[in-house]
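Input.
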Amino acid sequence: MSLTYPSFARRVLLTLGAIGIVSGLAASQTESGSLDQSISAYRDRMLSEQPRAARDNPTRPVLSSDAVQIEPLAQLAGSQDPATRRQSLMTGPNPLAFPPPNELLDQLPDPSRARQVFQQRLDEVRKTAREDRIAKKYERVVNKALEYLQQLDRGQRVQLSLAQCIQRALEYNYTVRIDTHNPAIAATRLIEAEAAFDAVFFLDYSDSSRDQPTASELAGNQSKLRSYGGGFRQLFPSGMRAEVSLVQARTETDLQFATLNPSYATTFQAQFSQPILRNFGLDVNRATINLRRTDLRISEYQFYARVRDTLLSVEQAYWQLVSARRSATILAESVAQNYDTYRSMEQRQQHDATPVELANSEARWRSREVEFIEAVKQVRDAEDQLKNLINDPDLLLSVDTEIVPTQTPFAAAITLDHFGEVRTALDNRSEIFEAKERIQASRIQTAVAKNQTLPQLDLTFNYQVQGLGTNADASFDGVTSNRFRSYTVGVNFSYPIGNRGPRSAHRRARLQESQAVTALKQVMDNVVLEVNNEIRRLLFRYKQLPPQLRAVQAAVRNLSAMQARTQAINPSFLETELANIEQLAANRRTLLQVLIDYNIGIVTLEKAKGTLLDYNNVIVK
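Output.
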């Protein structure tokens, strides 16, 4: 199976080719229906406390995307027929008051925008500062911070949006490409199982010569036998085995009393064997087909989950790279502030700065420099992690390429319907479908095991028409005259004393079926737990964003106010200023962590609901 994608597509549709499969047996459909009723009852019980307004007015906003004409194997969801188009999911903005996103993001600039943001801050300082020394000091900090940020620059730079990373991962990711073959492999096993009922054509030939002593002249010493024939045999879904053959044999002997020498004997034979109890019926004989069909569906659900998990890993790696780069910007400014403080302390060494204060300021600067170096390493690690997930041949791990994320973090509120999200998860998670298929497979195995506890009772029938002559034509004409006919009807019965083996196998199958049902309930509970955790994560991260932003703003005002009202510059002031600078950097890093975790929480919630592919306009067929 192969996947083809245009390089310019923003969203991608994965198409999984699979062979057509016949519908299940009536008994299997009945069992599947009862299982669906059981699952529906379980879901209704879990959602019984849902408010009526939430049930009657579900909101499912649609995420629009540009339609792009691409190959039939991979197309955007928006290019499908409107009657069959699947709508993507997007949470809508909450009308609650929230600070403007730009106000938050300006506190957390990417290194690519650091110069612009730093210049804006410098302009603001020049407007509000009472003394020129404050503006000059921050100007030195900006220049030093930009000098530190140059460590992130490399020879090659690539700008990537989140959509481009997802598209490239779907096209090139090794895990997706490997698992793409699994459904096709499972389809071949299904065809192999169905081939058990194909008719078989066979040919037999033998040539033998015998020379042995005899005790009577009425028996020949030497004889030659040549036999050749062919026919068809087939296994039927009812368990019947049928064989039709036509065999001709030429016999030559030295027996003097043989009337026909050589003689030609032709035999037409039809044989039938039909189980009456054990191995009787469609359910038993087609069990392997039904199991392989179930395996095929499980393989498709597993592939769906693999694609979903890969997209989640890509998005998480993308946001981790965003976090690492913006954290490096925050640390670069903090290191520059520490360096400027150390230089100021060094200049005051001949006046009022003690060696202890000078050593303390240098220690702080060096420790922050070590943190920045670690931040640069984390940026490189995050870039490699994203490259390893994308596996794009244009972004080799062996090539030192700087990846610049262009996606802006989402910094607005979202609307969540708790019970609606749980209901969506129970309706869409592939793990639930997979668990249901495993129950179906265990029921098939239970039915087979139950059948094997029955006695072996087979009805056999053998019918022959024979012809004899001095040549092959005369012998065959004798068969067509239907003169010499024979038939045999038989019944074969067997039953193991105690029947312990089949009964034990039946009990094991029933236990495994019960185990599969319990596993389904466990999967559903785990899905609900995962959705609850992700909803709680989003709600609390949202609650943390405004106060954390206000904490950053307060730290900025505190630093500005302290610098504005200070008349004397002494080591004590420099220490206090440095503490405020570090507090501001810590608040900004905490704000960044909350914001990134908020963005990751959005996609992990979509993953928990089983709608992450819809969220990204990716459809697996």
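DSSP finds 17 helices and eight strands in the chain.
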